[in-house]
Amino acid sequence: MRVEIQCVLITFNVGRELQNAPHYCQSFASCCNTVNDLGGDIKGGGKSSAAADKVVEEIRAKGGKAVANYDSVEDGEKLIQTALDAFGKIGMILRDRSFARTSDLDWDLIHRVHLRGAFMVTRAAWNHMKNQKFGRIIMTASTAGIYGNFGQANYSAAKLGLYGLANTLAIEGRKYNIHCNTIAPTAGSRLTQSVMPPDLVESMKPEYVAPLVLWLCHEQCKENGGLFEVGGGWIGKLRWERSQGHIVRHKNQRMTPEAVRDHWDNICDFTDAAKPVSIQEGLQMVVEVLSKVDSEGGVSGNPTASAASAVGQKLPPTSFSFSHTQCIIYALGVGMSTKDPDHLRFLYEGHEDFSCLPTFGVIPSQAAMMDGGLASVPGLNIDFTRVLHGEQYLELYKPLPTSGTLTSQATVADVLDKGSGAVILLDVNTYSGDELVCYNQWSVFVVGAGGFGGKRTSDRAKALVPPPNRAPDAVVTDSTTRDQAALYRLSGDWNPLHIDPSFAAMGGFKAPILHGLCSFGFAARHVLKQYANNDPSRFKAIKVRFVKPVLPGQSLQTEMWKEGNRIHIQCKVKETDAVVLSGAYVDLHGAAEGGGLQSELVFAEIGRRIKDLGSELVKKVNAVFGWEITKNGKTAAQWTIDLKSGTGSLHKGPYSGKADVTFTVSDEDFMEVVQGKLNPQKAFFAGKLKVRGNIMMSQKLEVILKDYAKL
Ligand SMILES: CCCCCCC[C@@H](O)CC(=O)SCCNC(=O)CCNC(=O)[C@H](O)C(C)(C)COP(=O)(O)OP(=O)(O)OC[C@H]1O[C@@H](n2cnc3c(N)ncnc32)[C@H](O)[C@@H]1OP(=O)(O)O
């Protein structure tokens, strides 16, 4: 296509891109040209009229009209005046990028020439264009500005600044028929000829750029505000594309960097991307977002519908990698100390039985809650300054490793309206590869967020179990330290509620409070020591309700009731006698599992041995062989045994039940156990007293022997 342009053309900083233009483009010849070039060398120094004069000569030789101008483009008025003096009108401004390369430090020079220069010249021309109701402005940007280019920060910024300028000029000029477009040419120039191979410079001839400029300047061309890459005979248009994005905050909530991180993939997903062309379109999206957030309910709004919609939602899965360091920090966090030699196996990675405390099982799943996971669930508009830990259930399916990577998947199991607060139940499964390692149920109490008309109870909630109505079987008292929370938080619960006095005050506490899971860890290890010889493989599950806050430095008193494999627990703060953990229990795996036998002795044999101890201890109960254990005239247990079948029954209170057990024990050890000299639990765990068969029965024996020792 041949483009005929009847116009006044001003070129500034002409450079090589247009030096040869008159040779191939007749259109220059048909214009009235004002050719500007400062004539600098590529470092911005020097001054020569050669470049501008050469172009003027060539245009004139083609029969065109041209005048040269050698002023700096900052003197835009002088340049425009040159055009007006010569031709009496202003048409098009061509911005070329024949800019001498300079150092990064010379920011001001680059900006003055490219950005400020464009501003000055355009401003000088603007009113003339407005008056004549026609204008075509071409900003010459650079791919260095569009894409960036190593070492060209100042140049890139100035060049893309031209595009920003052009965008606004396109809007402001539209009604005066002033169009402003931007080109980013790839062309051989004074700038690039020193760095490009000659044949490439040749193929990037200015002749392959100028026709685009001429078309954009044509009065028939409607293009306005466009950005074009051009070079080597190819032209492409660029535009903005915006991903659908993702809303990362909820009503009445802080927007957190964690939420941004967790939704990064959504934010950057260009599926169904929009192509906004105006700031209004951009704003429209923000308005839509605001109305979506505002219409959200949630536990702190008026949320029946949206809170219900949160149920069943999955939080982003999280991965948690740990080594022995995290296991040890956790053990210290829940009060383990080298003062107690039994604790060494949890504190020293070189210990032959080095183990991870079972309650460490809450830590991998905690990552799923804490790191913005909970904040990301629509409908749960949680005010995190009002969050308290309400309850926790943990069940292990295998002993925890001391290092590895575990992944956790959390689901909102239910949202309850407790009047004074809302309770969010979260089920979290934690896996090692495909294998389920543990399950947690978190119960998050959001103070003051109740009263939204939701349901009060849930069959999804792990039930609390009250302790038996008797004095506890065992009590362990342990002190937390003033820095207990500061230490515990290193395991990943960075909630400022536990360390920052001003944050604690916002929640209505006079001082930072201890993490619920810290007290939980204390109580669990008390049970593990008391009833499982600190053997983590005995731990099965734990359930706890946090009834009142504990302050770091207070002493925790764990009361325990043993009912078979279930150890009921309740914790008090010793200084205040306030119950802080209630309805709680730890389930243990049966002690006898895997015990094995070397030789077998049936009840009859036990009875015989007990009988040998003396008549006060053993009596024949009935025709069937039997015995009872008494001391000081009181009966601890009555057992009967069917000699023929080798099975027996226990009669008395909680011990009653069918017995079907065999024992292995040396005479001496058995005597010591019965006489209370050897702790039955220790004997049991030391392998001196082995039980096989009905596990409940073995537990009962332990209790019977313990009771006997008490008598
Ligand atoms: C990313 C986030 C996930 C991570 C979460 C954990 C982050 C941690 O950093 C935070 C912590 O560790 S906080 C420290 C540990 N927790 C505490 O100290 C809370 C102590 N408990 C309390 O203060 C009150 O029980 C209190 C304030 C909870 C409730 O007291 P009241 O408002 O007086 O309630 P009450 O009148 O006694 O009972 C009303 C209904 O609520 C039920 N309820 C009470 N305590 C509950 C609790 N702890 N958990 C769940 N439900 C509880 C009651 O049963 C009652 O309901 P219903 O009538 O149906 O039985």
Automatic annotation (TrEMBL):
BP term (GO), one: fatty acid beta-oxidation
Stretches that traverse the bilayer = none
- Per the UniProt entry, the signal peptide is none
Could you read off the lineage of the organism from its UniProt record?
Answer: Eukaryota, Metazoa, Chordata, Craniata, Vertebrata
Q: Tell me its family.
A: Belongs to the short-chain dehydrogenases/reductases (SDR) family.
Q: Please indicate which superkingdom the organism of origin belongs to.
A: Eukaryota
The answer to whether the entry has keyword Lipid metabolism is: yes
Keywords of the record:
Fatty acid metabolism, Lipid metabolism, Lyase, Oxidoreductase, Peroxisome
What's the protein here called?
A: Hydroxysteroid (17-beta) dehydrogenase 4
Q: Which InterPro entries match?
A: HotDog_dom_sf (IPR029069), MaoC-like_dom (IPR002539), MFE-2_N (IPR054357), NAD(P)-bd_dom_sf (IPR036291), Peroxisomal_Beta-Oxidation (IPR051687), Sc_DH/Rdtase_CS (IPR020904), SCP2_sterol-bd_dom (IPR003033), SCP2_sterol-bd_dom_sf (IPR036527)
Gene Ontology CC entries for this record: peroxisome
Location of this chain's protein in the cell: Peroxisome
Instruction: Give the organism the record lists.
Output: Myripristis murdjan (pinecone soldierfish)
